[in-house]
Amino acid sequence: MKIISMILICEINALIPRIPELTDTEILYKLQRILALLRDAHASLIIDNGTYFPICFEPFYEEDEWVYRVSFILDGNEDAVMCTLAGINSIPVAEVIQRIRPYVSYENEQFLVDQVSGYYHPGSIAEAELLRVCGIIGADDKEATYNLITQTGKSLDVTLRSFNVDQIPHLDMVEMPHLFVYPSIYRNYETSYFYEMYPEENMVYVRVNEFEI
Question: Mean pLDDT: which of 15-29, 45-59, 82-96 is highest?
C-alpha cells in the first residue's frame, strides 16, 4: 500500500504543472487514470455531461475468451443486434480494450469486462470522451464506426453519432432478445419466485421476483 501511495503522489505531482495546458476534460481523465492505479472498483470519477454512442454490449465467454455482443443500439440498426464487436474505427477490439484499461478502476478481470461492455458506465466502449482520450476517435469526432461481425460471419460496420448522456434514455433503441439468449433468467416473471436445477453443473438457479416486507 505504501508503494501505491508513493506512485499516486508522483503521478499527481507530475500532473500539477501541466494543468494550465490541459482542458477540463483532459484533467478529469488524467485524474481517473491516477485513481485507476488503486485497482479499487469504488474509486472512479463520474464525469458529468459526458457524451456516449447509443450502443451497449453484453459480454459472453466463448471459446476461452470474452466477446462483446450488441445488446442495445439506436433504432434502425436491427441487423447489428447480437453481432460481435470486432473493433472501433478499424482498431481491433483487443487493442481498444488495452487502451481503455488504464482508465478503468477494477479489482479483477470480470469487473473490467463488465465496465467496458457499456450501459454508460465510466470506462465504457461507448464513452465518446474516453475513446477520444485513447486516440480511438479524433479530437473533434462526433461519430464512431463500430466494426461488427454478424452471427453468419459477415462484416457489418455501423456508424453512430454521440449524444449527451441525458439524451440517451430518450432515444428509441432496439435490444437483444434476452428471453432467447437467457431463457432461464428472463422467464416466469409472473411468479413470485422461480428456480431451476442444473444437475450436470451441480447448481441451482433461484430468482425472486417480488417479496413482502
Answer: 82-96
**Burial profile 20-56: b = 16 or more Cβ within 10 angstroms, e = fewer:** eeeeeeeebbbbbbbbbebeeeeebbebeebbbbbbb
* 204 three-class SS: strand
Distance separating alpha carbons of residues 10 and 4, to the nearest angstrom: 10
Longest Cα–Cα distance of the chain, Å, equals 62
Instruction: Judge whether 116 and 97 are in contact, CB under 8 Å.
Output: yes
Q: Which residues pair with 196 in a beta bridge?
A: 205
Count of H-run helices and E-run strands, the chain: 6, 11
pLDDT (tens digit, 9 = 90+) per residue, 118-145?
A: 766 778 899 999 999 999 999 889 999 9
173 CB burial (10 A radius; 0-12, 13-18, 19+): middle
| pTM exceeds 0.85 | no
Amino acid at 126: A
**Would you place residue 48 in the very low, low, confident or very high pLDDT band (cuts 50, 70, 90)?**
low
Identify the bridge partners of residue 206 per DSSP, sorted by sequence position: 195
Say if CB 47 and CB 122 are below 8 A apart: yes
